[in-house]
Amino acid sequence: MATPPVPPSQAAAGGNFEAPPPPAMQPPGTDMTGICFRDQLWLNTYPLDRNLIFDYFALSPFYDWTCNNEQLRMRSIHPLDISQLS
């Protein structure tokens, strides 16, 4: 079985969890109830598993670049790595 390619965010960082530049933020109060996020190209290319789920979520317009998960990703700590959390 062929190994899927490394996601761009991990390839550029040598396996670290650096994210691509954030998408344009929606102004506070913007009605986003009619927006649905799905990146089919990404889903067809990479498995949606615990190692890549945060990379996928970071592509969404709903992702908060100030959240704790992003702070961990910026320090190359996987958000599910319990040994790194205090």
Description:
With 86 residues, the chain is mainly alpha-helical. It is 26% helix and 0% strand. The chain has 4 helices and no strands.
Task: Tell me the layout of helices and strands.
Blueprint: H1 8-11, H2 40-45, H3 53-57, H4 68-74
In a nutshell, what does this entry contain?
By secondary structure, the protein is mainly alpha-helical.
Average pLDDT value? 75
Structural class: mainly alpha
Count of DSSP-assigned helices: 4
State the end-to-end distance. 38 Å
Q: State the share of residues found in helices, binned by percent.
A: 25-40%
Q: Please tell me what the overall shape is.
A: flat
What order do the SSEs take from the amino end to the carboxyl end, as H and E? HHHH
Radius of gyration: 14 Å
Q: Residue ranges: pLDDT <50 for 5 or more in a row?
A: 10-17
How does the major sheet shape up? Answer: none
The fraction of residues in strands falls at under 5%
Count of distinct strands: 0
What are its keywords?
86 residues, mainly alpha, 4 helices
